[in-house]
Amino acid sequence: MERDARFLVDLHRDRHRIDRELGQHYLVDNSVLNATIEMSGDLSEQHVLEIGCGPGSLTNHLLRAGARVSAIEIDPGSLEHMQHHFEEEIASGKLTLIQGDALTVEWPSDVDAIIANIPYQISSPLLDRMQRDARTVRAVLLVQEEFAERMAMAIGPLDRGPLGLSLWLDYDIEIGRRVPPSCFSPQPRVTSCLVQLEPIDRLASLDSKVDRRMFRQITSQCFNDRRRKLRNLLKKSPRRLARIPGWHRGRWRDSIQSLHEHPLMDERPDMLEPEDWLELCDLISMFEA
Questions:
Q1: Mind listing the pLDDT tens digit for each residue in 101-143?
Q2: Domains contained in the chain, number
Q3: Is the pTM of this model over 0.90?
Q4: Are residues 141 and 233 both part of a single domain?
Q5: Is residue 205 one of the residues assigned to a domain?
Q6: For residues 79 and 87, what is the distance between their CA atoms, to the nearest angstrom?
Q7: 261 and 177 in one domain?
Q8: How many Å apart are CA 62 and CA 64, to the nearest integer?
Q9: DSSP assignment string, 41-104
Q10: Can you tell me the distance from the alpha carbon of 29 to that of 10, in angstroms, rounded to the nearest whole number?
Q11: What's the domain range around 21?
Q12: What angle do CA 25, 27, 30 make, to 5 degrees?
């Protein structure tokens, strides 16, 4: 029998219980898997990192596309399944299985792309790790639809927030195909979306010297209350400001006071474009104690 998505998932589920704490919802729709490969571009001879391979439905498509795959999997049952059903690819070096938590285990240093149907509960910390350790690597991810819209800041001010602004520093983001629950086994309760992340160094292109941690702290603090003006939101220094070299409460206070008359200070968080946030953070950072 040909090894396809439904076959692999059914074999896995016959032998192993679903662990809902790990967010195990397996793709069984070949058209979605084909769309993932198409969105990923030419994968021939590319080294792909897959997060959470499960029963191998996406892994199989990646291998068919000519990729060399390193797949991280935390579930022992899934690893046993993969070792049995992908024995030939493992022996040839086309597939490498890495046991562990994708948030903490060491990632290969030479990957060309990250392609994954990621467990939804680790979406945010996984993106944090990508920005920290692999922000020059392109990615195609399957995530919850609402999360995808926040990543891409797709619906104007409504979806604008710390997540999308942080990703904007490092990626151009495109939302692809919507994926209904019926494409998974077992079915999740939410609709999903494919998302493409194309690396871009926004700080370099806009000639900014802003510390990424400073940018994230400022935007996170301001979006805690979207209704207030920035001058009120920024009176208090960010909680983790001291972790940024050279910064302390006194320098923060003096910096914000120096911007008292700047027109950006009368805006509310929803009204600023990403470039405005970068300008604001640049102005704050330029102040020397």
A1: 999 999 999 999 999 998 888 999 999 999 999 999 999 999 9
A2: 2
A3: yes
A4: no
A5: no
A6: 11
A7: no
A8: 5
A9: ---TT-EEEEE--TTSHHHHHHHHTT-EEEEEE--HHHHHHHHHHTHHHHHHTSEEEEES-TTT
A10: 13
A11: 5-200
A12: 170
